[in-house]
Amino acid sequence: MELNVTKLSKRYGNKQVLDELTLSFTSGSTYLILGKNGAGKSTFVNILSGNLNSDGGEIVLEAGGEEYDLESNAVFQYQSFNSFRFLKVKEVIHFFSTITVDAKEDPELYKLLSLDRIHNQLIENLSGGERKAVSLYLTFLLNKRVVVLDEPFSELDIEKKYLLAKHLKQKLADQNAMTIIISHEILGYQELFTDVIIMDNGKVLETGKTQDLLDKYPNSPFQGLEGVFYSLTGKYIEVS
Ligand SMILES: Nc1ncnc2c1ncn2[C@@H]1O[C@H](COP(=O)(O)OP(=O)(O)OP(=O)(O)O)[C@@H](O)[C@H]1O
């Protein structure tokens, strides 16, 4: 399955937030879209999810020459989860598994996210990190072919990020999912990504396999993806 985005544009007033974005995503790969605050990452995800209209461009999901509906094949996790405030965690999870045809429970992920410790609590009483954990679990429970995560691990501690990355890497490979992760920090989970897309000011500056990009920009004052980002933008982004 391939997701092809061609010349996607969005403008607010005088500001060109997305400037003819052209990208290709393939099943079995996990993409990091890396950019500083305001680069246009969330705008891109909001257009992908159908929450926002673009000013122009095309988004096509296809496999074997046939076109598929993105909305019914994709799941989007948002930066915060505030729905179902008066239900308990386990009730929300149960509800989602009953309304989903191919729901896929994952006891290991449940435990890794510490949901076994909070499953009797109301959503409204959860901390930001706990809400994020619930939304992450629901995202994978829906078992879709395209998974889009917006800052998925930002409120989790470093040990949890590392363990989750390990678990998700295997899980996403087994499911042959196409995973797109938007982030401006990747401390503890860099190994999850097979591909990196670097965005700045609404433009794609570079895309490629993580190792290829590291090899392509060897002379930066910073190491790793910080170095790649700095070589391309002249800006520092803290990622590891
Ligand atoms: N509704 C809006 N009206 C006007 N400007 C907007 C609107 N939504 C976003 N913007 C502007 O578009 C630019 C891109 O915003 P966007 O949220 O896509 O960035 P981002 O890369 O996701 O940043 P972050 O990492 O902070 O979430 C920013 O300059 C933002 O101020």
UniProtKB/TrEMBL annotation:
InterPro entries membership: AAA+_ATPase, ABC_transporter-like_ATP-bd, ABC_Transporter_VariousFunc, P-loop_NTPase
Statement: the UniProt record of this protein carries the keyword Nucleotide-binding: yes
Cleaved signal peptide residues: none
ABC transporter domain segment(s): 3-226
GO molecular function terms attached to this record: ATP binding
Domain of life: Bacteria
Keywords, alphabetical: ATP-binding, Nucleotide-binding, Transport
Protein's UniProt keywords contain Metal-binding: no
PANTHER family membership: ABC TRANSPORTER ATP-BINDING PROTEIN ALBC-RELATED
Name of the protein: ABC transporter ATP-binding protein
